[in-house]
Automatic annotation (TrEMBL):
Annotated InterPro entries: Bact_response_regulator, CheY-like_superfamily, Sig_transdc_resp-reg_receiver
GTP-binding keyword on record: no
One Gene Ontology biological process: phosphorelay signal transduction system
Record PTM 4-aspartylphosphate, positions in chain: 60
Organism the protein comes from: Chitinophaga eiseniae
Protein name: CheY chemotaxis protein or a CheY-like REC (Receiver) domain
Keyword line: Phosphoprotein
PROSITE patterns reported for this sequence: RESPONSE_REGULATORY
Positions of the Response regulatory domain: 8-127
Gene3D superfamilies: 3.40.50.2300
C-alpha cells in the first residue's frame, strides 16, 4: 500500500485486459482509491460531462471514435477540468507522440510496461510522487 494524495483515477483505454490489469494493480497499491474507466475518449467526455471529476487521468492514445490526442485537446478546453493531470499510458514509444501530447498539455508519458511488476513500480512512483511529471 502506498501513500497517495489522489482519491480518484480515471483510465481511458479501449483494451479490456489493460483496464482490468491496471485496475487490479492500482487497487493493490491504494485499496480505497476510486477507480473509474472509460473505453475511449468519447465515453470519457460523456462521463466528465455527467459530473465525474477525477484527480488524475491515465490516457491511451490509440482508440476508436475519439482517440487520446483528440480527447486531450478537448479536455484542455473545458475550464473546470483543464487542471487535471493527464498521464499518457500507451503502447507507443514514438518521439512524435511524446512531443504532440506535451503540446496538448499531457503531464507525463508512459509506454505500457511488459510486466505487472513494472506497472506496479510505475504506478507507485507516480502515486507517491517519486516520478516527477514532465515529458
Amino acid at each position: 500500500m502506498v501513500s497517495c494524495k489522489y482519491s480518484s483515477v480515471l483510465l481511458i483505454d479501449d483494451d479490456i485486459d489493460d483496464r482490468m490489469i491496471f485496475g487490479d494493480v492500482l487497487k493493490e497499491l491504494v485499496p480505497d482509491i476510486i477507480y473509474n474507466e472509460a473505453i475511449n475518449g468519447e465515453d470519457a467526455l460523456a462521463k466528465l460531462e455527467a459530473g465525474l471529476v477525477p484527480d488524475l487521468i491515465f490516457l491511451d492514445l490509440n482508440m476508436p471514435r475519439v482517440d487520446g490526442k483528440q480527447f486531450l485537446a478537448e479536455l484542455r478546453q473545458i475550464g473546470h477540468l483543464r487542471h487535471i493531470p493527464v498521464i499518457i499510458y500507451t503502447t507507443s514509444s514514438h518521439e512524435s507522440d511524446k512531443k504532440e501530447t506535451r503540446a496538448l498539455g499531457a503531464s507525463y508519458f508512459i509506454t505500457k510496461p511488459n510486466s505487472l511488476h513494472e506497472l506496479n513500480q510505475l504506478l507507485k512512483g507516480i502515486l507517491e510522487h517519486t516520478i516527477q511529471y514532465s515529458l
